[in-house]
Amino acid sequence: MNWEEMRQIQPTVMTMLEKSVEKNRLAHAYIFEGRRGAGKKQTALLLTQRLMCTAQDHEKPCGECRECKRIKHGNHPDVMTLEPDGTTIRKAQVESLQKEFTYRGMEPGLKVYIVNDADKMTASAANSLLKFLEEPESPTLALLLTENVHFMLDTIRSRAQKITFAPPSLERRAAIFLEQDINPNIAALLARLPDEWGGGNVLENVEWIVHARGLVIQLTEEVYHRPQQMLLTLQEKWLPHFKDREELDIGLDLLLFWHRDVLALKHRENDLAFPDQKEKLEQEALHMSETVLAQRLQWILQAKRRLRANVNAQLLMEHLLLRLQEGS
Do 209 and 322 have their domain in common? Predict the structure, then answer.
């Protein structure tokens, strides 16, 4: 992705960085905060290219010079990236980064380090980085990337300028999952779910989501066409799969997405969470008024709120399904 393409995705962020570079007012440290897929890492690399590009056009990096290519491929000697080792970034990793930069500090020119998932630093790693932020050995730019800025030390947050990235579009989020060879029908759901269901362990969640999706399709069919079966399915299939409050909340989200798809088709929109179920959804759209549909969406949202109040899961779901069925 080049500078212009990122400007289309994150116009506010890119304009802010452009002005800072042009006026030579770039901060020594930035926190790039935003949802997965918002373009934080691409922006960090593009900004680094912009600062180190040797082409004559200084309004944007050329992407073709030796410096730009080395940054893109991760082998520029003055640009280092820190990634979690397992689930955390450890103190030893930060110390290794500091040692490397101290060694390279004898050479002229800007040094840049990019920390992915900066919120995953251990307390000792964060405190070690804090000293590095305050006393760099040479002209240094720190780019700290995070989806959870509130998990970072206050002392680090106070020493870096925070830039918030706009959430990525559903289309862009779905594209990220498609690039991982995830089925398009599953990608459409993952794009709508919270970040923790589409994060680094997304492949571990796919099988669970596939099963959950099938249960939603089955349960909605029974609620509206075979109500005598729905409570049995709830007892034998739904509750054993959605075992805790977090999983049940996802199940309610999937029910919500199903009904939102019905509403979307009533308005002739085609960006669906269940794209392969379009024919079935269209039939529901034909036989369901917007008033009834709005009421059903409200009931599901109420169930989500009640779930957070520790209501018994079985009673909550039985109540919801009976309301949906009686309102049909």
Answer: yes
Q: Are both 103 and 53 inside the same structural domain? A: yes
Q: What angle do CA 21, 105, 85 make, to 5 degrees?
A: 85
* First-to-last C-alpha distance (Å) of the chain: 48
Task: Specify whether 180 is located in the same domain as 262.
Answer: yes
| 214 Cβ neighbours under 8 A, 6+ residues apart | none
d(C-alpha 132, C-alpha 146), whole Å: 19
Q: Judge if 15 and 105 occupy the same domain.
A: yes
3-state secondary structure 267-320: CCCCCCCCHHHHHHHHHHHHHCCHHHHHHHHHHHHHHHHHHHCCCCHHHHHHHH
Mind listing the pLDDT tens digit of every residue in the chain (328 residues)?
A: 899 989 988 999 999 999 999 999 999 999 999 987 889 999 999 999 999 999 866 678 999 999 999 999 999 989 999 999 888 999 999 999 888 877 765 557 889 999 999 999 999 999 999 988 877 767 889 999 998 899 899 999 999 999 999 988 888 888 888 988 999 999 999 988 876 665 555 677 889 999 999 999 999 999 999 999 999 999 999 999 999 998 999 999 999 999 999 999 999 998 999 999 999 999 999 999 999 999 999 999 999 999 988 889 999 999 999 999 987 5
Domains contained in the chain, number: 2
Single pTM value for the model:
0.69
Distance CA(22)–CA(26), nearest Å, equals 9
Q: What are the Cα distances from residue 95, in Å, to 15, 79, 91?
A: 34, 16, 6
Structure-derived torsion over alpha carbons of residues 298, 304, 310, 311, reported in degrees to the nearest 10: 40
Residues 144 and 237 in one domain: no
Q: Are residues 142 and 265 in the same domain?
A: no
Range of the domain at 136: 3-168
Residues 67 and 94 in one domain: yes
